[in-house]
Amino acid sequence: MLTFDPTNMPLMEVQRLLQGGVGPRPIALVSTVSEDGIPNLSPFSFFNVFGANPPVVAFSASRKGRDASLKDTYKNIMATNECVINAVTYDIVQQISLASVEFDSETDEFIKSGLTKVNSTSVKPFGVAESPFRMECELMQMVSIGDGGAAANIAICRVIRFHAAEDIFLEGIIHPQKIDLVARMSGNFYCRASGDAIFEVEKPVGKKCIGFDRLPAFILNSESYSGNELGAFANSEFIPHNSDNKQLILSITSKEFSSFDNSPQALNRYIDRQELEKAVKVLFTNSEIKQSSATKRIKFLERTSKVALNLKRLDLAWALALEVEKLI
């Protein structure tokens, strides 16, 4: 593990560490307007949401690293107390990059980036028509920390109006596959928050999970399971009873499957293909596997249990994992 002291490092190296280690960072595409009525549009990746009552978001229009000068966004929001924060999606990421260019204060970044102005409801700055989610905001407080290059200017804003496209919702929530957001990483890297990058972890709200300390030692100390997989077990509210596990396995082994191969060789294929129930049937009905060494059976049980965890079949993962206790 490398250790760094930011007080003894060049500013740009500190910046690179932060941008590489803290991410992916959501991007606020911030629209403001100057006192003279000149629109400004700029993306900021030091940004997030901090409360819902009232709805509060914040972004940092940090001083420029090169000369510590203040950005137009900072000047505009301090003068008018208003902005619009637009979500950045994959479809407009190249245009967002254009908006980040350091144009002079008289330049309209809407024109440079090719993005379309849309009138706001409650504030003067325009929204971005191409963005499917916009927040009209009032400045609550500007927190400035430091006065050198890259020093923070944290704009804490209250959202007074939301605008959201109807087609980004699914079952009452904004669905990540539909809004297709992008986020910033280190250097020139971005992250597309959709496709294979999206996965679900059930929130343990209202649950009394058993935790790592109550996992059976033979599961906790197994070299087969990753920390994430052990975490899935530990998020359970209880350890299933042996009778329930036996009934679950029996219900699977009694099933009839089309194109089913009950050979030991098929077991590896079913595990690799994540054909979970077929793998379970071979594991518990093939005589050669049942008579194999304890070490070999444990390996098969744990490999199959890992497939069950990956497929969100926690009940079956437990049933398989607990079978190991009979073999040790």
What report would you give on this structure?
The protein has 328 residues and is an alpha+beta fold. Helices cover 34% and strands 22% of the residues. It is built from 13 helices and 14 strands. Helix 9 packs antiparallel against helix 10 (276-285) and helix 12 runs antiparallel to helix 13. The longest helix has 17 residues, at 294-310. The chain is elongated. The two termini are 37 Å apart. The model has no long low-confidence stretch (mean pLDDT 96).
What is the element layout, followed by pairings?
Layout: H1 11-21, E1 25-26, E2 28-33, E3 39-44, E4 47-52, E5 55-60, H2 72-80, E6 82-87, H3 93-99, H4 109-113, E7 117-118, E8 127-128, E9 133-145, E10 152-164, E11 169-170, E12 173-174, H5 176-179, E13 182-184, E14 190-192, H6 217-220, H7 227-234, H8 242-253, H9 264-273, H10 276-285, H11 287-290, H12 294-310, H13 314-323
Helix pairs in contact: 8-13, 9-10, 10-12, 12-13
- Catalogue the unreliable spans: none
Q: State the strand order across the main sheet.
A: 3-2-6-9-10-5-4
Class computed from helices, strands and strand pairing: alpha+beta
- What portion of the residues fall into strands of 2 or more residues? 15-25%
Secondary-structure element series: HEEEEEHEHHEEEEEEHEEHHHHHHHH
The tally of beta strands, per DSSP, is 14
Q: Roughly how many Å apart are the termini? A: 37 Å
In DSSP terms, counting alpha (H) and pi (I) runs of 4 or more, how many helices? 13
Largest sheet: 7 strands, antiparallel
Q: What shape does the CA trace take? A: elongated
Measured as a percent range, the helix fraction is 25-40%
Instruction: Output mean pLDDT.
Output: 96
